[in-house]
Amino acid sequence: MESDNSAGFTYLGRNFSNLSVNDHSSAFSDCNSDRSGEFPSASSESRRLLLSCASDNSDDLIRHLVAHLSSSSSSVDEQKQAAMEIRLLSKNKPENRIKIANAGAVKPLISLISSSDPQLQEYGVTAILNLSLCDENKDLIASSGAIKPLVRALKMGTPTAKENAACALLRLSQVEDNKVAIGRSGAIPLLVSLLETGGFRAKKDASTALYSLCSAKENKLRAVQAGIMKPLVELMADFGSNMVDKSAFVMSLLMSVPESKPALVEEGGVPVLVEIVEVGTQRQKEIAVSILLQLCEESVVYRTMVAREGAIPPLVALTQAGTSRAKQKAEALIELLRQPRSGVSSNGGRSSQL
Predict the structure, then answer these.
(1) In residue terms, where are the ARM repeats (predicted)?
(2) How open is the CA angle 19-173-35, to the nearest 5 degrees?
């Protein structure tokens, strides 16, 4: 599998080999276990049972619950109860996640994800998410065939199932070999749709999953072809969305794909990026400059467009008050914009016009 995280070029003898912004850890947080509260379907007896087995003596209960999941004689209600209790047992206790997987729960939980019962599907998705939080379980979950059912839940599930499916796919994508498999299963357009139409949590989960998946080069192209630039630009333009940083990091990752550049421009990204350079936070300014640098590095047309948008004054201000890394990038971009018709490319010849 080919991963592509590089971003750099040489211009007028100067090498800019690190255009990416590496400080993404605080912009993206891993999806945690499901953030649901208690479940109204849980009886008082069931609650007492779960509380009593929250200790180290939960092995028998786990085997009992897995047996109910797997049995062909179990009713839908019994499967729901078993899945719900497994979901709760795996929510906060890492040791239970390993026990549940070792007890053989993964395959029957995956089968629930394909259920026509929305609640049963949701419980199955969320239990798989909780189990995937344990690194030791990720290979087992993927090799047991979870990816395609999770993608279907992302398409047809309840809002909670979609959010948790996105989180589960994110967790599985942290194993490098799974990134392409997830992309080829049709997840990318569905995550782009969730990014565009979902609530705040859905947007956050979708952007985090896309950021992870798009370290694989072929997934970057899939994301661009799925129309990701539209929601990214819209979210970056809305400073009240709390999605500016996440969206900008995803956009920066996509810029190594040539198709991303005309898509960004067509969706009105240039004025949004220039505004971020002018009024964003220090981190937002730096990543916006990085994106503009990658946009302009080989295109006289795009340089002229960025310059006409009024980028030079805020860039000059950034060279005086930004971080050392932001200053370097701002200076490089100013140099490009002040020679918009030179057409010097990274190999010393004439650059393309687009």
Answers:
(1) 104-146, 186-228
(2) 105
User: Does residue 20 fall inside a structural domain?
Assistant: no
Q: What is the DSSP letter of 10?
A: E
What is the CATH classification number for the domain harbouring 153?
A: 1.25.10.10
Residue 229 lies inside a defined structural domain of this protein: no
The pTM assigned to this predicted structure is 0.84
pLDDT tens string, the chain, 354 residues long: the values are 555 655 454 444 445 455 555 555 556 555 665 655 434 444 444 544 554 444 555 788 899 899 988 888 888 899 999 999 999 999 888 899 999 999 999 999 999 999 999 999 999 999 999 999 999 999 999 999 999 999 999 999 999 999 999 999 999 999 999 999 999 999 999 999 999 999 999 999 999 999 999 999 999 999 999 999 999 999 999 999 899 999 999 999 999 999 999 999 999 999 999 999 999 999 999 999 999 999 999 899 999 999 999 999 999 999 998 789 999 999 999 999 987 554 444 333 344 444
Residue 237, classified by CB atoms within 10 Å of its CB into exposed (0-12), middle (13-18) or buried (19+), is middle
Considering its fold, how many domains does the chain have in total?
1
Within a domain: residue 146?
yes
Q: Are 292 and 275 in contact (CB under 8 A)?
A: no
Which structural domain range is residue 167 located in? 57-178
